[in-house]
Amino acid sequence: FLVLAFIAVFYYSAGRRHTPLHRTFSQLLAVLLVHLVFDAATVYTVNHLESVPGLFNDILHRLFLGSMVVVIFLFYQYIAILVHEETGKGRRLDWPARIFLIVAVLGNFLLPITYTVTTEGNYSSGPYMYVPYAAVVFYLLLCAGLFLVNWKQLDRKKKSAIGIALVIELVVCVLQGLHHT
Hints:
73% of the residues lie in helices and 3% in strands. By secondary structure, the protein is mostly helical. It has a two-stranded antiparallel sheet with strand order 1-2. α4 runs antiparallel to α5 and α5 (130-149) packs antiparallel against α6.
């Protein structure tokens, strides 16, 4: 959080162009900061189930995972805009991405939530957990598709940046999927 906050202070205070890419990065940075606040709050609330009101815990977890869906959507948007600027090709996948975002946010707030208690730590579970997993898979597949289809037209540095970002996101998701706590 502190590293991102530090980056945000410099980014928001610096003069920058107001292009779609910059606006998307600004939104991504802001949502990531909020997401990390919810992350910290839910780590506390889920590990104090006996003292935190259930409704408060549910709301925080839904906001946390809802913001995760928005983060991954903005991550896709950023890559889609970057590829579009580089190739000049239309962004045909934006509508499906937005429709999925709406469905995912609705699912996040409407599906049942439960909590799993373990000796290593507690975590949220239940049908609503399929939403962020599905969102990560869906948006990473869209990003990977854009990346691979446009591979030859992308600048070497942009290829590296997109490729590294996708690999890091994939590794983080696999680790979180294997170790829920």
